[in-house]
Request: fold
Amino acid sequence: MTTATKDKEARIEAAHDRRASTGSRGDPQTPGDRLTGDEVWHELEKGSFAVLSCVTPSGEPRSSGVMYKAQGHCLYVVVAPDSWKARHIARDGNIAVTVPVRRGGLLSLIFPIPPATISFHARAVVHAGDSTQVRPIVERLGDLLPDDRRASSSVLEIVPEGWFVVYGVGVSLSDMRDPSNARARLPVQAIGPVGDASETVNA
Reply:
């Protein structure tokens, strides 16, 4: 871990502590006062597991747990080209994502502390694993997409849109029991369109 990353994490943790302390004194706070978009992205970058949800062409809801890697305000997921995720998402591109955020450290092994969550709508594009469009990203996916699997895999490029809806992020564990304190809604920073549709995999 670089010194810059350590400093960033220290600043975020300190901000969390200050906000939690302020809330415990009863000072008025709104969700927007407690959390920033950078802090949400920091949690997404630390995570690796998410639940993707979409609606099939026949109108049936589908959800699936996936491993992901966050790069440049996008999430990347590796799937099989013939999987329902690749086929259904390629048709429409509209998905919902929820990322659980573990809270409580060792206490979560003893007490039933629920995870915090970050949820959002997103636009997704399906790329071939060996596409030139995503080659710079694929090089940084590491074990998520080994060299020998690139030609036989697809990569979902997921760009959050609209709002982050979070629960239990940037608050104390005790405040997680109060929905009015634990919830927050922050706008997703626009970062531009996803990859060219000509590079996507069609179902």
Q: What stands out?
A: Residues 3-102+112-189 form a domain with the Pnp Oxidase; Chain A fold (CATH 2.30.110.10). The chain is about 25% helix and 30% strand. The helical segments are 3-24, 31-34, 37-46, 84-92, 135-138, 179-182.
